[in-house]
Design goal:
Layout (H helix, E strand, L loop, with lengths): L6 E4 L3 H12 L4 E5 L12 E2 L1 H9 L3 H5 L4 E2 L2 E6 L2 E7 L9 E2 L2 H12 L5 E5 L3 E7 L2 E7 L4 E3 L2 E4 L6 H5 L4 E3 L4 E8 L11 E6 L2 E7 L5 E7 L10 H9 L4 H9 L8 E5 L2 E3 L3 E2 L2 E3 L14 H16 L5 H35 L1 H9 L1 H21 L13
Parallel strand pairs: 1-2, 1-12, 2-8, 5-15, 12-21
Antiparallel strand pairs: 3-7, 4-7, 5-6, 9-10, 10-11, 13-19, 14-17, 14-18, 15-16, 16-17, 20-21
Helix pairs in contact: 1-4, 1-8, 2-8, 6-7, 8-9, 9-11, 10-11
Bound molecules: flavin-adenine dinucleotide.
Length: 399
C-alpha cells in the first residue's frame, strides 16, 4: 500500500508543479496528481513577466529557466483601424523584459527536477473525482479509478474550473461577464518584420491580438462579443477577418498563408476570486483560488508567486490550517489589485472597441492622443509587470 503523503497537490500546472517541487525539495512527502498524461495542452500562455521571473529566482530556478527555449518580447503596441496608436519597448524600466517561454518546456523542466526528490510521488493521468472528509475536515481525495489517498493537507491547484473548489462548496465571486476568445496559430517561420512584440488590434468594432510565440509561430486572438455564436468559417475566412484588424505587413502574411491557420480554439474565462482560499484540510492556489484573465499575461506569474509564499509557510513546521489562513491573507491583496488592473484594461479596450465615433476620433488625432493614451497605459503597467515585490518573502540565504 502507498504510504500517506503529508501533502496532496492536485494539478500540475504552474501553481501545483512549482509548489510540489519546493515542498519535495524541502523534504516533505508530496503526492502530485495530474489528470493529463502530458503537458502539451494547446495554447497554454507563455509570457513570464518580471514578477514570475522573481518568483522563479526565489525558488532558486533561474539557472533552470536560463536553459529553456525562450524569447524576450520586444514590446507592446496598440493599433486602431490598422494604424499605430502607440508603441512601448520592453523592458519598460524593469530589470528583465517580459519573456516568452513555452509552458510545456517549463513544466517538463520543473517536473524533471521534482522527480529527483525521493519524497515526491508523481501520479500523471489520474483525475481526482472527489474530496474525502473526516467530520468537518477534508482528509484526502478519491481518484477516478476509485483509489483513495489521505494527507494532512490537500492543495487544490486544479485551475480555473477547480473541482476541489466546487466540492468544498467554496463560492467563486465573479468579476464581470466571462471573456470569450478564439485562439489561432499560424505555424512559423513567418517574416520577422510582420509582427513586433505583442500587438493589440482594434478595428471595425472588433478586438484581436497578434504575437510571435517563443517557437516563432504566430499566435492570434479574436475577442468574441458576449454570447456571440461561433461562426463556422474556413481557415482562409478567419485569416481574412484577422487581416482586417491588422496593419499591412501582418495582413499580407495572413492572407498569403491563410490555409495554414489552425482551427480556432475557444476559451471562456470567468475572472473571479474564491470567497475563501482554505478550509480545514484544504488550500486553493493559482487559478483555482483566483481565475485570471489572459489580459497582460498574469496567471502563470501569480500562480508561481502563490507557490513561493505557500511553500515557505507550509514548510515552517506550524499548524497547516493556520499556515493556510496566513497564505491567503498574504496573497489576496496582490491578486485583487492585479485583477482590478486587468479589469481596467478590459474596460478601456471595450470602450474603444465598441464606440466607433471614439475610435475614429482617436485614429484621426492619434498624433496628439497617442502619447496621452501611452502615458495612461504605462501608468498601469508597473504592478502588472512586477507585482508587489514586497509581497514575496525574502530569498533564503544559502548556507
Ligand atoms: C488563452 C489564454 C492565454 C493565457 N496566456 C497567459 C500568459 O501568456 N501568461 C500568463 O501568465 N498567464 C496566461 N494565461 C493564464 C494562465 O494560463 C493561468 O492563469 C495559469 O495557467 C494558472 O495556473 P494554475 O497552475 O493555477 O492552473 P492550470 O495551468 O490551469 O493547471 C491546472 C492543472 O490541473 C489539472 N487538473 C484539473 N482538474 C483536475 C483533476 N480533477 N484532477 C487532477 N488534475 C486536474 C489540469 O489538467 C491542469 O494541468 C492565459 C490564459 C488563457 C486562457
Amino acid at each position: 500500500m502507498t504510504p500517506s503523503p503529508r501533502f496532496i497537490v492536485v494539478g500540475a500546472g504552474p501553481a501545483g508543479l512549482s509548489l510540489a517541487l519546493q515542498l519535495a525539495e524541502g523534504g516533505a512527502d508530496v503526492a502530485l496528481i495530474e489528470a493529463s498524461e502530458r503537458f502539451n495542452r494547446q495554447f497554454r500562455g507563455e509570457a513570464l513577466m518580471p514578477s514570475g521571473q522573481q518568483a522563479l529566482a526565489q525558488m532558486g530556478l533561474l539557472p533552470l529557466l536560463g536553459e529553456l527555449p525562450q524569447r524576450a518580447l520586444e514590446g507592446w503596441s496598440v493599433w486602431l483601424e490598422q494604424r499605430r496608436l502607440f508603441v512601448v519597448a520592453e523592458p519598460m524600466g524593469s530589470l528583465q523584459p517580459c519573456t516568452l517561454v513555452p509552458q510545456e518546456a517549463l513544466l517538463e523542466a520543473l517536473l524533471e527536477r521534482a522527480r529527483r526528490c525521493p519524497s515526491l510521488q508523481w501520479r500523471p493521468g489520474q483525475a481526482v473525482r472527489r474530496l474525502l472528509r473526516q467530520g468537518s475536515r477534508i482528509s484526502g481525495i478519491e481518484l477516478s479509478n476509485g483509489e483513495r489517498l489521505e494527507a494532512e493537507l490537500v492543495i487544490g491547484c486544479d485551475g480555473r474550473g477547480s473541482l476541489l473548489r466546487h466540492q468544498a462548496g467554496i463560492e467563486l465571486r465573479c468579476s464581470g461577464e466571462p471573456l470569450e476568445l478564439l485562439w489561432f496559430e499560424l505555424p512559423g517561420p513567418v517574416p520577422k518584420d510582420c509582427v513586433w512584440g505583442f500587438q493589440t488590434l482594434v478595428a471595425g468594432g472588433q478586438i484581436g491580438s497578434a504575437c510571435l510565440n517563443a517557437s516563432g509561430d504566430l499566435q492570434l486572438a479574436w475577442l468574441l462579443k458576449p454570447g456571440a455564436k461561433r461562426d463556422e468559417l474556413s481557415s482562409e475566412e478567419w485569416a481574412q477577418r484577422l487581416a482586417n484588424l491588422a496593419p499591412p505587413p501582418l495582413a499580407e502574411v495572413l492572407i498569403e498563408r491563410g490555409t495554414s491557420l489552425s482551427a480556432p480554439v475557444r476559451f471562456k474565462v470567468q475572472v473571479g476570486m474564491a470567497e475563501r482560499w482554505q478550509q480545514p484540510g484544504l488550500l486553493l492556489l493559482g487559478d483555482a483560488a483566483h481565475p485570471m484573465s489572459p489580459i497582460r499575461a498574469q496567471g502563470i506569474n501569480l500562480a508561481l508567486r502563490d507557490s513561493v509564499v505557500a511553500a515557505r509557510a507550509l514548510l515552517s513546521g506550524g499548524d497547516m490550517d493556520t499556515a493556510s489562513i496566513t497564505i491567503e491573507q498574504q496573497r489576496r491583496p496582490e491578486v485583487r489589485r492585479l485583477q482590478k488592473l486587468q479589469e481596467a484594461e478590459a474596460r478601456q479596450g471595450h470602450l474603444i472597441g465598441s464606440n466607433s465615433p471614439l475610435r475614429y476620433g482617436l485614429t484621426l488625432t492619434r498624433g496628439l492622443m497617442g502619447p496621452i493614451a501611452k502615458r495612461v497605459w504605462k501608468a498601469r503597467q508597473g504592478p502588472l509587470r512586477n507585482g508587489q515585490p514586497e509581497q514575496l518573502p525574502r530569498p533564503r540565504l544559502e548556507p
